[in-house]
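In the design runs reported in the main text, the only information available to the sequence generator was the tokenized backbone. The following block is the verbatim input for one such run; it is reproduced so that readers can re-run the procedure and compare outputs position by position.
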């Protein structure tokens, strides 16, 4: 029996409840999900690659502890190369992308078309963000937190502590 493998890529700067919602739901589609933390230096991330990987691992371990992975195995990896090459090296047959709003679609559609041209056997699967988290973005989490706002309903306690640490706030 073949193992269905999917890759869910992102910068995860930081990971938030919208990301974990997509991760949880993606486990219904695959037997093995690789959450791929991208270097993506062009976005000038607040957190280092290692810090982002650690936060993703913490949130994924929370999903596993809550038995919320539908039996799928979840692995967290970092990558700094072309997404399709990374996905193929992991044995993936699908790339999973989350969509929050129509504004996400044009960019994601173009990326999916380019990926299909580069790797014809790799499918892109879009999951709509759940209505309770579709307004959350890493950019807004960082901005609200930097301005002293409460982001505790957007991120896990571990990620909130990391944001506080990064901003020099007492934990």
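Verbatim output:
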């Amino acid at each position: 029996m073949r193992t269905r493998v999917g890759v869910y890529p992102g910068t995860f700067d930081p990971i938030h409840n919208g990301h974990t919602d997509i991760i949880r739901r993606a486990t219904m589609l695959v037997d093995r999900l690789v959450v791929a933390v991208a270097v993506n230096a062009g976005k000038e991330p607040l957190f280092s690659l290692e810090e982002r990987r650690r936060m993703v691992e913490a949130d994924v371990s929370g999903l596993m502890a809550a038995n919320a992975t539908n039996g799928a195995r979840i692995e967290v990896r970092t990558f700094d190369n072309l997404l399709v090459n990374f996905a193929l090296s992991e044995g993936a047959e699908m790339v999973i992308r989350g969509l929050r709003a129509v504004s996400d679609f044009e960019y994601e559609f173009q990326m999916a078309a380019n990926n299909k041209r580069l790797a014809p056997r790799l499918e892109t699967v879009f999951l709509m963000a759940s209505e309770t988290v579709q307004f959350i973005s890493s950019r807004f989490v960082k901005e609200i937190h930097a301005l002293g706002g409460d982001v505790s309903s957007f991120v896990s306690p571990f990620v909130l502590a990391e944001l506080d640490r990064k901003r020099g706030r007492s934990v």
